[in-house]
Write a structure and sequence with these properties.
Length: 113
Amino acid sequence: MMTTTLRILDLAAAATASHGEDLLLLLSEANELYQQGLQVLHRQVAARCGGLATADLVSAAQAAGIPCEASQDRDEVILLIALAEWEQTPAAMAYAEMAEAAARRGVCLIPEE
């Protein structure tokens, strides 16, 4: 069974030899997987933090170096925590490198205006 991480790593490896439309297709698939992985982790963090008060979440986030403010609502803080955790995963790091390398070669998911 192919995990999200393994598939993103495979796409990132294939991207090094791809160009133009082929690279854009790989980047698009990797982006979808990135978003799916973040959503899964977001649900896990929400479940893990379910019993904590918002103030405790903010304190924990700030202690972990995640920029947030006491004025942010609970869902925002949980998302920030999930995003910070996700960005440290091999899948997210591989996707970020893939997207940066593609951008250096003029390929981006956001069309130019």
